[in-house]
Each structure stands twice: as structure tokens, then as C-alpha cells.
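Example 3.2
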Amino acid sequence: MQQPPPPVLGGTPATAPVPYAGQLSVDGAWQWDGNTWVPRSAGADYRPTRTRSLVAASALGLWVLSAVLFLVAQLSRLSLANRILSGDLPTQADANASDTFVQNSFLFEVAVYILSGIVFLMWLHRIVANNRALGAKQLVYTPGWAVGWWFVPFANLVRPVQVVDEAWRAADPAVADSTRDSRRRSGSRGLIAGWWTFWILGLVTSIGAISPNNVTPSSLHDSTVVAMVSLVLRIIACLLAIVIVITLTARQQRKADSLHASGAHAQSAAAPPPPLLPPSV
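Structure, written as C-alpha cells:
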């Protein structure tokens, strides 16, 4: 009796899935061209991040300007509180003008803050996705969770900086094949730690800027000072974030150019194509 045909792609010819043109293997290293599996370069899905980085850096810069404006408004309020404490009572018109200035500058700062946050996360999503496209292996954070962790309470105090740190290490142009071990050996700059330290300090300090229900000249003075300190800390963090956006984008692009030039990301054509299904037991 004739022997049955051997398993094909982990099953039998009758049950094996038929790959469709353009289908990727599980590891993403192979692609079905309609007739056979062909090696797929690690940079096939790489998309330049320059435009997103420019938009993100510009939006962050705009937030810095809005924060400086809010800082000036806080200075006017502090001056008003000092006048009251010294016995020089301001007119009602002066008090109303100060309140209006603070409120309008605050609303503008919040609006720009939301805008800059959105474009920054869009940039970060692309950066993390590109590291995978450039062949980085054993990455902990996916592009989706690179964004999602920012919205998880308590975890968002730690995870976002870990996402950026991993992205920085994975984009090292001196390392063609980024793995967990190579990233552990590749140090990240103090720039990232400094950015996150100032950011967290700014957020924690802002809690003390909340005015009590019964506002007194003294409490107004103290809360305004704390709010100004918080703003300064967050402005520094934002300036460092701009440097990170520009530097990390350039770093990743250098790696992409290096891989393209050297062909270090090419798969060996002699390697066997991967199965679509695990081998039958």
C-alpha cells in the first residue's frame, strides 16, 4: 500500500491551511509571494518618524510657551497676594483682572497640554513599532501598550519611562540585532531619567497647588508659589522631552540607514520556510 503523504505545514494536505499572497509567518521573517516563502527584510514595515517627531516637538514647544504664559499669570496673582498681606489692598478691578488672566492662561495651557500629549503618544507609538520593524527581538512593550500604560493608574508612574528607555536601547545604531541581552548592556542616557524625574516631581508638586475651600491671602500666596514651582519643573521636563523626541528619532533613523546599507537585516534564503501550524504530534 502506498504510504500517505507527509504532513504539510504542520498538518496533512487536506487540512493544512493555504497561505495567501502577502501572508506573513508567525515570526514575521517570511512572506508568501503566492508560490513560495521568501525572506522578508526586517525593515520592511519601517516608516520614517521625522514628520511625527517635528509635530510632537513643535507641540511640546507650544506647551512650554503656554506654561510660561500661565507662569506669568501666576506671578501676577502672587503679586496681588503679597499686596494684600502687606496691607495694600488692591481694587476689585485689579483682582478681577488677575483672576481672568489666570483662568484664561490656564485654559489655554490645558488645551495645548492635551494636544501635545496626543501627538507625543502618536510619535511614541511609531517609534516602538519601528523598533520591531527593524528586527528588535524580545521587546517587552508593544506599540499599543506604549500608549496604553500612560492611562493605567499607578502603573503610569513607572511604565512610560520604561517604554521610552527600551525604545532608546532598541534603536541603538551600533547594534544590528537588538535582543534583551544587548539592550541590557546598552546604557541609556541620563536624559531619560532626568526627564521622568522632573515630570514626576512636577506632578507631585502640583497636588500642593490646590487651593483650600476657604481661601485666605496666606493660602493664596502659598498655593500660588507651589503652582509656580510645579510649572517650572514640568517646563524643564518638557524641554527634555523635546530633546528625547529629536534625538531618539535621529538615532532610530541612523539604525535604519545602517541596516539598509549593510544588509544586516536580510534573512538567509537557504533557511527553511516556517510552518503556519505547529507540527502534528
